[in-house]
Amino acid sequence: MCCILFVSASTMSNGQQTYFQKGFNLKAVVRPVLAQSYHSQVVERLKGLGYAARAGEVKVKLAREFGFCYGVDRAVEYAYEAREQFPDRRIYLSGEIIHNPEVNGRIEALGIRILADHKLPVERYASVEKADVVILPAFGVSVSELQHLREKGCVLVDTTCGSVLNVWKNVIRYARDGFTSVIHGKHYHEETKATASQALTHPGGHFLCVKDRPEAELVCDFIRGKVQAGAIVERFPEATSPGFDPERDLQKIGLANQTTMLMTESLEIQELLRAAMRERWGEAGLADRFRAFDTICSATQDRQDAVLKMLGEGGLDVMVVIGGYNSSNTQALTRICAERLPTFHISGADRIEGESIRHRPVGGPGETTSSRWLPEGPVTVGLTAGASTPNNVVGEVVERILALRGRRADELVAGE
Ligand code: SF4
Hints:
There is one protein chain. By secondary structure, the protein is an alpha/beta fold. It is built from 15 helices and 18 strands. It has helices spanning 27-38, 41-48, 70-85, 101-109, 121-124, 143-152, 162-176, 190-198, 213-223, 229-235, 246-249, 263-289, 298-313, 328-338, 391-404, and strands spanning 19-20, 52-55, 58-62, 91-94, 112-115, 133-136, 155-158, 180-184, 207-210, 253-257, 290-292, 318-322, 343-346, 352-353, 356-359, 368-371, 379-385, 413-414. The chain has a six-stranded mixed β-sheet with strand order 13-12-17-3-2-18, with helices on both faces. A five-stranded parallel β-sheet has the order 1-7-6-4-5. Helix 9 runs antiparallel to helix 10. The chain is globular and about 65 Å long. The structure holds iron/sulfur cluster (SF4).
């Protein structure tokens, strides 16, 4: 087995440590800078008022769990610590540290260069030299990328979230036991790419990524013998392991998911595949051929639960979901809300321009503009934010919404 997960420390020939997974003990130095960059007095005020407050005829309600998760908190903190620890070195980041344009911009302003994605590690890390530092993001990187960087001998600051490592453990176990990993996730997402690569750490290991229920249903149809293998090969050209043979590789499957998918959809997909495998192999065969672990992370689940609770309490006229457009967990929150009421996924306060709002509709390819988005008269606006959205961005959005009605955040008072 490729011993990728359990590397705790490695050193150069001169005895210096080159692999860091636990930061640099510089919390006291970077915390004030982080607070200054990402803290929001408006958000603190709202929390202090019980997550619901009004100013004039505008009422704002904040989900009880929103914004930065533990994994993102840690990754951002380690990036700032790395800058302190290596003030004179070139520092690179393997892609965006998280899916938030504001945070990535601030990281770049520290002189940390974000490396664009490339199919081959040798291309992505072409400019990285042994003396450089490379930060690995919270989503993790693929096995081949990590191997490539270790061979270069550069310093690695690994911020891969513990919840992602947990998914990898399951996927490695599947591969070891001869199960193909069926991953509910977007095959092009950094985390899913990294997770899928872990399925190949044992000879004969394979993966198939399904992004939604229709794709899972097609796989079920194949398992039941309703469609031919060619339909799978055609539908998943980039979402399967090299040489994937549906006949051979879908006989024993283990489910995992990208940590930030919609929880209800992941569970539905799990049940669909379980039913198909039961039908194909019988109840007796199921235990030897089907495994499943819920690998949605607790932060994602808490944010989805909190927004469902807020929607369940009723009284909202419109919902604003804040987060990067490529943030999966923000997209999942948007899907939940959009089923219940008018919902606008925005990346930041600058998307609200008077009566117009620029937002990304559910499943849409990009941004669209809606006008007169805020109902006339007394209005209650629900708010939540994805796990990669800092509080300062949430606070700016609240201020912008209040300003539409000539109000300020310091006028907010408690109000159900
Ligand atoms: S969303 Fe979950 S898995 Fe991703 S960084 Fe946050 S806590 Fe970790």
